[in-house]
Amino acid sequence: MYESERRELADSLSMKGIDDIYVLKAIGEVERHKFVPAGLRNHAYKDAALPIGFGQTISQPYTVAFMTQAMKLEPNSKVLEIGTGSGYQAAILFNMGMKVYSIERQMDILHATQKLFDKMGIRVYTKYGDGTIGWDEFAPYDGIVVTAGSPSVPPSLMKQLAPGGRLVIPVGDKNIQTLKIVMKTEEGTFITEDIPEFKFVPLIGREGWKEK
Ligand code: SAM
Description:
Blueprint (H helix, E strand, L loop, with lengths): L2 H13 L5 H9 L20 E4 L2 E3 L2 H10 L7 E5 L5 H8 L3 E6 L2 H14 L4 E4 L12 E6 L8 H5 L1 E12 L4 E8 L5 E9 L14
Parallel strand pairs: 3-4, 3-6, 4-5, 6-7
Antiparallel strand pairs: 1-2, 7-8, 8-9
Helix pairs in contact: 1-2
């Protein structure tokens, strides 16, 4: 179902500058319509964020592709995602052959997404909790992708990054963020690249925004 729409979406992302063939292949294969509410299925292959309930969104496909590409992952890399949400970003990473760990702070979203993963045979290690402090038990990670906007880069996530690894995180105020790509060198120092103008829901937690 929706195969031609998926191919067209991948082609449109390629025209917008996504050039990692493995990312484009995953976009062309992962059934995004299964990650959106039933009433929005016909919009699933538009390059747009969509509401998934609980005040949250499934990220725009371009953003998912851009963040995935920015991690420059090798096959079989270990990746930590903060903000499981609908599960689409995790499914893209799983499709690309990564070992995926994902943390979500809203229990009801996580339960719904775990059910979907089981149904679709997507094997992602999930955890309920505050992702701003990472998941120390399985660190270090070759890539960390944060899918909610933070006031600053959480030090715990920088610590849990492997040498040569990349952390991709939107940082800014609650309305607009800069996407930061933080690379850890083999010596343990950090090099940061900034890409302007992304918009995410807030990252709420000990090393993110305080809960009201
Ligand atoms: N990655 C998701 C996808 O592919 O659909 C999109 C995630 S949505 C834009 C952001 C998610 O981050 C929300 O589900 C929200 O509950 C979650 N979130 C916010 N703060 C968090 C935190 N400290 N730890 C874990 N999840 C968090």
